[in-house]
Amino acid sequence: MMEKMMARSVRLLFAAAGMSAAAVPALAQTQDAPMQRVEVTGSSIKRATAETASPVTVINSDELLRSGKATVAEYLQTLTVDGAGSLPASFGSGFAAGSTAISLRGMGATSTLVLLNGRRMAPFARADDGQKSFTDLSTVPMQIVERIEILKDGASSLYGADAIAGVVNIILRKDFTGLTVRGETGWSRYDDAKQNKASITYGQGDLDADKYNWVFNAEYNQSDELKAADRAGRDWIGHGDIRPWGYGLATQYAGGYITNGAASAGPTGALLNPSTGQYVALPGCANFSTSAQGDPRGGCVWHQDQFRSMNPEIESVNLYTRGTWQISENLQAFTELGYSERKTSFTMTPGATSSTVVFPGANGGPNQLINYGSGILMDATHPQNPYGQDVRLRYSLWDLGPSVRNGKNAFNRFVVGLKGTNAGWDWETGFTRSESKLDLAWTNMINMNVLNAALSNPASQFFPYYIGAEAGKNSAAFYDALRRTATSHSTTRLTTVDFKASRELPVALPGGNIGLAIGGEHRQEKLDNPSLSGSENGLINSSYTAAFGDTKVSAVYMEALLPVWKTVEVTGALRYDHYENFNSTTPKLGVKWTPAKNFALRGTYTEGFRAPSAAENSVLSQAVGSASAQDPVRCPTVNGVPTARPGASQGDCSVSVSSIKIGNPALKPEESKGYTLGMVWDPFDGTSLSVDAFKIKRENEINPVSYAEAAASPTAVRNDNNLRDANGAIIPNSGTLLVVSGAYRNSSFTEVEGVDMEVKQRLRLGDYGRATLGLTWTHIHSFLRAESPTLQYEFAGTHGNCDTSNCMGTPKNKVNFTASWDIGAWNFSGSANWRDSMKNIRYEGAPCASQYANGTVAPGNCELASFTTVDLSTRWNVSKQFTLFASVSNLFDRVAPLDPLTYGGMSFNPLDNSGAVGRYFKFGAQYKFF
User: Fold this and answer.
1) Is pTM beyond 0.85 here?
2) What is the 3-state secondary structure (H, E, C) of 407-469?
């Protein structure tokens, strides 16, 4: 494909930068500032040095902006500490679609506490997986970020008992002066997936001279929708049909095929022949599907890439302002106002006649389940029914059109506070009010009552509903009655009052004076997440998912710094949280020993506590999601290989199953213990090395019943296309797996063990400027989830845990390598991001999760290949006021490996999204007026 003019312009800008750097000596460089490793996130005590016993990663604004990433979330999700449970913007079919989140250590977004300027934000107004409450990173403006601090050992004792996996503290500018405008545009090598971004930042006032500072930032982002079909020429990317790469017919994004006694919904419709017990497709397939056919049973094969988005259309606005007033020498007042509005649109597939929906019974009674696949029949008198009696059908309503998921999330945050110094104490107090509002609208949902009447009731005004090739005979009035736009309005609210104070006590130890901090807070969270309209009674083709609740928490904490010797520092913290039904006391202990100026050993011990959320323990809350599972009845494991039984199909070895997750008032809180042990070492001038081992064990973990366990339960709901034994007798309860269920429960534990390593090298190059090299490596030694003492799953190095979020897997190793070179007015930066290969199994010891059509394991050797991308960026300071910048992501246009198991991306893993989009260019400019 020919490059467009703007793509060539970016290439020429890089080339010009290289020629200028080679031909023009750099100006004299200033000496490098002392290398800064950590900040004070994780401690409330001010220190002469910012380095503590806790491992902290600090990302400054320059690193963030030159990365070429469009949002804070997009950058954070490239870090090696991010893992399974992370929510990328591209996951448009998930519960919390339209949001973004980070999952430290793969423990889930609900165990990662995200702070803005050290304070909480209201969680996104729809829980991930219907259960996991989290902070939406999309609400954070990127241009005004000063730095991001990631505390990797947990901080439950200071920020909240739920900070089990760690803390991400995003700190915005507080003292900006001047007026800066910035704009950028981006496009892929295919001249699509375009992004546009503009921001303006204004600040005035000097705290020392004027006694005030005020800063305002406005940011606008727009991203075009990227359809799966737009990558039809990029190998397997975006293809639902992966038969050309050796796979069978019944893969997860295929439809319309017919199996023994069953059929997947197709655009022509298929009717069950009562004399043979087999489905027969109606004619006209060539008018609909663009997929190659080849179903031996004559189905109309189609694939979801004909409709689905790969990345959603996004439009967002972020507004932020902060004012600071120096009332007196020892008293300062501040306020923050933030507003974010984000609209997303994601195209799904058309609905079908054979939905299975779940909704609560009357007055909170037992769940009701409707299997429309067996309940909706085509009447014997229907003109398209050749059998003379009522028959079942399988039909995908292409004539109605695909469903589009439209979301609008409006987030607001208000903070007002005072800080000062009195009697030797540095203190701060604040009031925070934050709210997230989410409006969802799912178009082209089906009114199942109208559908049923139009197919099976000759007395209905809409009978007969002509399907497939004859759908043109239907009236517009019928479609108006059939079509529903399902809506919901969800809100979450957070109100917090907090106070903290610290001082150095007049009590000296051999290493110095004792430091002390105290603090407390009271917060209230309210959750009101109703289900989509029509799902509360089974009227539409969607199950009921809702959560309601009100949580109040009061907490106090204390922290002490004990410099017991000049080379040994001990920190201890203790927090007490009071919930309505639970109490917790969570300690933290840290030790740092510095036997030499350039070497230190450090270690921490932390405890955490997470009370059940409203989505988990309320009888009014329930969620219905779906994931793939191996059906142990129709596809048992034989000699280590999932093998379909006679009458079943290979599709039963990885079948998409609905799961009902029900609130449980008897839940106990989660409790955790975390350990780190490491060192920091500066062996040479400009060299910094840190290595930290970590272990987090979360007990009484709140989880739904695993898909694997629920699939084997006799309570699982199945279709009635039962298998037959060798004598022809029906095997009871052996039909196609449809729905599994179970209340949330306290599992035994999850335990994660691994190692982080960070290396930085700064180089002084004389006339050729200066450079910085960096390497970050995270190794997951073990990721063990135990449902009981006898039922345990090891996920490290595998494609699991597929029960959560988007089934991206748990690679054992992730590495980021970065390089930056400053010479004169130019900066050149590059990064290489590598993730390890993963076994294509659901957990260690499980059989291969995917097979080729010939029955051998897939992909090759049952392993998802490793993946590496390289990104480059450059910046040219044309003058003190004017800057040009450009970047190329996925420089070598690497194609993401084919992943047949994940549901987070169509045939590619969401970890590898840049390899699906392809080489991507960005170009922009910034001007500072004063």
Assistant:
1) yes
2) EEEEEEEEEEEEEEEECCEEEEEEEEEEEEEEEEEEEEEEEHHHHHHHHHCCCCCCCCCCCHH
